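Researcher: Let's do a round of design. I'm pasting the structure tokens now; please hold your answer until I've finished.
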């Protein structure tokens, strides 16, 4: 079909030289696909290079500790991806002798691998005729064919997958999948695409109908929850501090943080300092309490906005199980805490 031929021709002329594109080895392809979920290529590439340096094979990744994996992942967000990555590596290394499943249906059974990732690995590694459907593909197809189906609906994935399957050349599915994703990332971008230079500007239905900015249709709005975190950064006479592991399910599971006072709203100095005096470091006398940042740092996650303050607390004597600055820096933290440590605790 002309659409596929034009698209592949565009791709071969315009594709980015990305480190995971020059291989059919499923291990680096899998790593890149997991990392690029919810993440831009420019942000994900340094992490990919760090991971493949630290863990050149799936056996190396499987043998690492979860904390090593989370530390390298620090800053990429959506940390469940890293935990699932690690568990899947261990399963493939121990139960499958380090060999990835070679087809879409078996890949889909692995932890952390959904329909899109399974399709990407199956087509890029084994040239299986299965279309990838992600945000880029929704956007390209909905605009080109003027598809008004709400992509937030569960049925949309099936409809777009069927459409992509009709278009995919059965002799080279990998090239088509790479091409349509790259086209959505570089040319048919979400906002203000430059349609004047588009290879499809004479055949794109949305352009003809002046609907480019209206497609794809997505109705579901995410409800954002506001949370108020007060982190207590203690320092004793040895300059040691104390941290804790987030073991509850939810954000930042198994990452580390300073002792946390979560409040219903942003509280003032008198309220927080009273809570610290009454609830924390009962074995030590508190010498002083001060706000490190009087204006909250707003850290935005997909469903939550965290309003974060750091409180410096000077302790007389020594803290039980306190750790020094070098040890502190070896733990995996959420990026907002990592940045505080690097900037404020020198």
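Researcher: That's everything. Go ahead.
Model: Designed sequence:
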């Amino acid at each position: 079909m002309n659409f596929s031929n034009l698209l592949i021709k565009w791709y071969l002329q315009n594709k980015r030289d990305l480190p995971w594109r020059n291989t059919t080895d499923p291990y680096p392809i899998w790593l890149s696909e997991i990392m690029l979920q919810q993440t831009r290529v420019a942000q994900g590439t340094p992490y990919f290079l760090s991971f493949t340096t630290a863990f050149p094979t799936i056996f190396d990744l499987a043998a690492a500790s979860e904390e090593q994996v989370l530390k390298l992942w620090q800053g990429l967000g959506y940390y469940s991806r890293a935990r699932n990555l690690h568990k899947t590596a261990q399963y493939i290394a121990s139960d499958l002798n380090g060999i990835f499943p070679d087809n879409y249906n078996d890949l889909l059974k692995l932890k952390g691998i959904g329909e899109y990732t399974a399709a990407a690995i199956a087509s890029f590694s084994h040239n299986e005729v299965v279309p990838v459907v992600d945000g880029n593909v929704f956007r390209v197809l909905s605009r080109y064919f003027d598809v008004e189906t709400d992509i937030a609906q569960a049925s949309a994935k099936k409809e777009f997958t069927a459409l992509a399957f009709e278009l995919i050349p059965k002799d080279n599915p990998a090239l088509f999948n790479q091409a349509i994703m790259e086209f959505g990332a570089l040319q048919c971008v979400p906002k203000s695409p430059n349609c004047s230079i588009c290879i499809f500007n004479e055949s794109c239905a949305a352009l003809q109908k002046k609907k480019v900015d209206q497609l794809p249709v997505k109705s579901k709005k995410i409800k954002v929850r506001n949370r108020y975190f007060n982190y207590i950064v203690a320092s004793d006479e040895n300059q040691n501090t104390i941290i804790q592991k987030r073991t509850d399910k939810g954000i930042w599971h198994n990452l580390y943080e300073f002792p946390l006072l979560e409040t219903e709203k942003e509280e003032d100095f008198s309220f927080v300092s009273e809570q610290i005096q009454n609830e924390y470091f009962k074995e030590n006398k508190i010498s002083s309490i001060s706000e490190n940042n009087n204006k909250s740092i707003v850290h935005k996650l997909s469903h939550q906005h965290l309003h974060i303050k750091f409180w410096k607390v000077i302790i007389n004597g020594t803290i039980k199980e306190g750790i020094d600055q070098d040890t502190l820096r070896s733990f995996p933290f959420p990026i907002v805490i990592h940045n505080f440590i690097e900037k404020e605790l020198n």
